[in-house]
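User: I would dearly like some help making sense of a protein record. I have put the entry right below:
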Amino acid sequence: MTTPDVQRSRRAGSDILRTAIRRNVGAMVWGTVLMGLYQAGETAFPIALGMIVDHTMSGGSPGALALAIAALAVIITTVSLSWRFGMRILQKANTTEAHRWRVRVASCGLQPVARDVDLKSGEVLTIATEDADQTADIVEVVPMLISSSVALVVAAVALGLADFRLGLLVMVGTALILSTLSVMSKRIGSSTQEQQARVARAGAKVADLITGLRPLHGFGGNHAAFRSYRKVSTEAKEQSITVARVNGVYTGTALGLNATLAASVTLTAGWLAFEGQISIGELVMAVGLAQFIMEPLRLFSDMPKYVMMARASAERMALVLSAPPVAAPGTARPAPGGDLEVDCVRYESLQGLKFRVPAGQFTAIAVYQPRAAAELASILAVNVPPTAYDGTVRLGGRDLAELSVEAVRELMLVNPYDGEIFAGTLRTNIDPSGTSRTVPEAVEASMLTDVVALHRQGLDYEVRDRGSNLSGGQRQRLSLARALAADSDVLVLRDPTTAVDAVTEQLVARKMAELRRGRTTVVITSSPALLDAADRVLVLDDGVVAAEGTHRHLLATDAAYCAAVTR
């Protein structure tokens, strides 16, 4: 039974194909004209040969023969130039259209508000590359289909003029071949769609494994993870073999049917010539056309397969492009430098959480349950839409639901707990946009100075993908430096120093407090150094604020707090 999501994907996939065709109609028209000239020229060649043979056998003059040879030269030139420029136009349009869809899928994946789609990042990557390319193939497929049909029609007409039975044989045979292959192409489309989905899942699994490679090695889970990936990859391999088998049957059937039609035309023409019903020149023409139509027949019979593949890819792209956003954010903007307020928020383990961080204050939140820390950070980062929880979060006195996500993130930065490190340099990781004026201060406050000083290139030191040439503590400090260099009005950090030694942690806490003085800072942490550097500490237990005060006051008055944070 077809689900509504699948039906919506198919409708949107058809819309994508129509958009691709409409956007490239000019290039497709010119490509069709030129490729039609190419196919017509190819068809005209054996026709001209047959006429030359008949003319020669009937005792024609040398001048007429020279004129016929010149006509052949014109045909050959037309074939060469029309193919060259026709394919250039179509391939340029194809490549440009694939680029457009790649950019559009990528822009959907990078939007501030996530799409409501059950796909991992690795699957989105496959859709943005392979599926975008196969969808754009429709720009080239349609002109090739039309030009191939032109060649078959010209061949059928030429053969029909020699003897109507030859022309009828080509037309009926082509219709039967196309009908047979169109049925088989549906199996290719469904098999290809499943293959693309399984390959995408395998790619997503690889991305997950690479991300968690170090933790997996740490607790010995790498072998189990490898077995899990091997299972997914084996499924993708088996589906690929199925697709290859279906394609092989399709191609073999197409070649067999095409060869049968060509042989039938040749034998029929030979019989008609033997009976004296067609001339020797017409026989030469028929044999030449029988050999020639193999190529347009192959193209013509391949087109249904490529159309189904393009449609399957377009439907997978539609999973991303037509998916509704997870949330519908507002359009208002918060007042700059405002405070942060969480008012009676209920979400998962958070049970009516309520607190306020005044503008310019450095507040630390000690959370006894790690799950609650992750949920609070997700809500503040607008990764959880306001409609998904009860209560209100206000920034600058405005409800988050009323604010645009872009405006929220311009004013408030919630640094990810596992901040991604990109291939590039230390500088481009700290300041990706190249506009920060506080890079030196951020490097100093995050205590990344030792990494910069360790290498002759300084901030231009090359960082490998995911920071593989940095230690865990260096990667964490690099992520912290990036957050500090953003210099946002409100900064939220979650456990920013868990991989840093105690001495360095003390320095980071003191320098970060100095750098962020006068700006709103919230640190979700159990680090005594950061807790001590904060102006105020909130204790979050069982989803509510259980206590508050300075770190030293809580150490002296709250035994549970003392046990939780001292080490």
Notes: The chain has 20 helices and twelve strands. The CA atoms of residues 473 and 501 lie 8 Å apart. Confidence is low (pLDDT under 50) at residues 213-220.
